[in-house]
Structure formats: structure tokens, C-alpha cells
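hey so u asked for the seq, here:
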Amino acid sequence: MSEPSGERVGLDLLDRASVRKRARNVMIAGLVLGAAFGGVVGLVAGPVGFAVGIAVVAVPLLLLAWSEARKTTWLSDGRVSVRALGTRVVDLRTADRLDVVITDLRGMRTVSLLVGGPPQGKAISVALAMYAGTGGRELEVLALRRIADALAAVGSGHALVLSELVVAQLRSEARGDPAAARPLYQLASAAPQGRVAQKLHPRAVATFVTSLG
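ran it, C-alpha cells below
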């Protein structure tokens, strides 16, 4: 099933409330760290040093929090777009980078699709699923279907493998399989431990998808 022309499908794994909460935590951390650093500098350089110290530490974190609060990702007409401080766009039909990336932070493993290439030569990471223990959060069904369709339309063998991976995930969800039995969970669990982020080799992904039968 191809993507209807002009349809815009959200690709945000986390809901807006969760995103705002994370952004708020980053903002609070930025203010606390900025005040602490500014206090240390202020002991030596006075009020001016205090202000500069706060600005050096807090401003970048506040900008990060603001961009996280604004961040939203979507797919439309075969193009993946993400808006934060600005808007980045990658056309899947001409993408020169299609990678599966696994991140592992505090016991939470996230499976993402990293796409990069024209028209801006940028890269965008689309989180497909996030797991901790035997449960987690997965991108909604419509979004996964549209990603699978868009990848299948690319025409390359690797893109087709990635499309089949997403389709296998959808089939598993339709069967009512528990999270631990779903392909994305299994792929995340099979990735070597001890790395915060790792790109899976296309051959390893293809072998995994083939094993799904």
C-alpha cells in the first residue's frame, strides 16, 4: 500500500507530554549547573564572572531544552522531516544513508532508523521502538506502515530489507505477540552490550530479517 500523496504522518515515538517533561528536566538541570558554575567563577571574578559563568553553561542547555520541546518528526511524500531549531528534510527516494542504530542508555534500548542525504545533505534519526526489560514503547501502526511503504519504494536491496523488517514488526504486533517476541525487540537485544550507540552492519540486519522466515 503506497503512501497517499500529501499525507503527513507523525513519526514521534514519545507523546508531547513526555517530550515537554524531558525538556523541562534539561532546563532545570541547565539552570542548576549554570548557577553552580557561575557561583564558582563569581568567587574569583565577581558579579560579572557569575553572569558569564551562568551564560556559558546554562544557555546551551536551555537552547537544547527549547529545541527538544519543539522537536517533531513526520513523513510526507516520501520525505522525512524533523523540526527543532530549524527544519531538516531527507528524501528517502534519494537517500544515500539508511542505517539501523541501537542506543543503550540506563537500561533503555532504542531502535532507530538513521536516514541521510538529499535535498539538504542532512541526517535524521527516527526512533522506531524503545524497550526496557520485557516492555517498552513502539511507533504507532500507521507510522510503521508508511515507513515500510516508503522504504519499499526506494528500490535498493538494503532499503527493501529494512522495509521487510518493519513489516515483520507489524505482523508480530497484529498477532498480539508480547514485546519480547517482536523483531525490533529481538534486534535490540541481540546487539552487543557496552556501547551507548552502535550502527548495525547491513549484512547483520539482512541475516536477521532472513531468520524471521
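The first helix runs from residue 16 to 70. The beta strands are 8-10, 72-76, 79-83, 87-91, 97-105, 108-117, 122-132, 135-138, 197-199.
lmk if thats what u needed
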